[in-house]
Amino acid sequence: MALLEIQNLNRRFGGLQAVNNVSFNVEQGIIKAVIGPNGAGKTTLFNLIAGNLPANSGKIYFNNERISGRKPYQIAKQGISRTYQNIKLFHGMTALENVMLGRHIRSKAGFMAGMLNLPWTWSEEKKIKEKSMEYLDLLGVADCADTEISNLSFGQQRGVEFARALASEPTLLLLDEPAAGLNIYETAEIGRLIMKIRQSGITILLVEHDMSLVMDISDEIVVLSFGEKIAEDLPQNIQQNEEVIRVYLGDE
Amino acid sequence: MDLLKRYIPVFCLLALVISVQLVTQFTETSFYLTQLTMSAYYSVVVIGLCVLMGYGGQISLGHAGFFAIGGYLAGALTTHNLLPFREHGLVVFLDRIGLLVAGKDLYGGNLLTVEPWAACIAAVLASGIIALAIGGPVLKLKGHYLAMATLGFGIIIYRIALASAYFGEADGISEVPGFMLLPGIEVSGSFRARTLNYYIAWGMVTCGVILLLNLIHSRVGRALRSIHGAEEAANAMGVNTARYKLYIFVLSAVFAAFAGVFMTHYNGGIGPSEAGIMKSVRYVAIVAVGGMANLWGALVMGIVLNFLSLRGVFGSYDDAVFGAILIIIMLFAPQGILKINLWQQVKQLLSHLTPALRKEETE
Q: Which residues span the domain enclosing A151?
């Protein structure tokens, strides 16, 4: 069984069929990319997987459990973590605190324990902090741990967002345009990072516009156009696929 | 180490509380203690609301309602005579399990009322349950809509207090007896118990502050702030945002209800003005002045402004002053006045002025 199974997924916005009968699987341990022209329904697809949008029909299975119809926080607890196209960090909090939120599902102190400051919560907090620092370190942004998030550069914010997503120790990581707004050096850096994450055993599904990055790192590629899946293949085959070329370059 | 840093201001608060009491004792100005006691109870509402607004990012224009539910229920239960209903099954049952006490009214008539501890717990529970029931649907709303909905709740409670005979209509409830917390420690407005009650009220503030300080520095506090920062992302990180918002709403309602119960016993009564909209607006204004996500700021402002108001400094313009405070804070110091960086403001003012001056020079 594949880690993530998407079956006949549909989503309409009024008269627009944003995702049209899309099905594909993501096998454990691979990097899979979803590409397609603007408006192809890539981000909608991500929002459907993460539970931010309900599907009109179709099913999504994760680890053989049906996750379509569940709330985002429930899906997060199942082990799916994500980053956003336009970074969504918690403003008014430091980089470290942002990453500590990633540990939310891996810790359990509730209202009562928090208010009474029970001794076991101290060691839990300490562990959360240590783990979070490790992830900041991994992303090379440990030196801005105590900086408020809006005082960080775009690249640093992206790093913190990655650290936050990884801190929850996900099984599947959804990356929505991780290279958006980065220069070629930073993009190469992100590429190496994504490979490193995959090596640690995390499966990755990403949406990306940067074709050289996609071709470099992906094991498999799904191509969407106007909400429909038009191809699913290995990167080298996708490059030769006439349908894909037509969609990207237009009819002759 | 962090813990010590967290509690140092609490020790300072306690030291201040004690020194104020000693100063009033030696300068024979202990009449101030009455207003300081009442300010303390109002501040309990304020700190609860501060955590809801500043950390949870949810507004409530109905918190006077929760204060009133606590106060009115505790007042009514401990004051209304149950003797005429002594044959009723419920009264017999309550009597048998020891929740009723016999007493005498002002004219020596026999009274049978609910024991204050039982009344207190019932009143606070009622407030919490109502908050749970209201909060469930209402907290799905955001911004203006949430403000409107909670305002509506506040109006309902106000009108119920004003219209029902059980709650004394426009007169409210009076002759509420004292509340014996422990043998010898009674919440009451009697002249001799003034110093004791000052300490009871401040003890409550201190406990409340410690609980909330712990909460905002915990995993839950972090989750609440994340909801404030980016709700969608908080959800994606596994925070059940709907439940967290509901719980913090209920918690702040429980704080308000406790304050209402104690205040009613202290004042010996409660009137509909305690449930009024202007009271809710006042609490919101105080939290705003203190600087939304600043528990200490809210507490300091809660004490200072309520004390001034209770001393009658604002005269009959009381409500107008709080309205004006709200406008001024929103315009000039949305972070609260304790966060104003005076030098920054001056520099900003200068940078606005200097181009104009330079222009004049060149002309």
A: 92-168
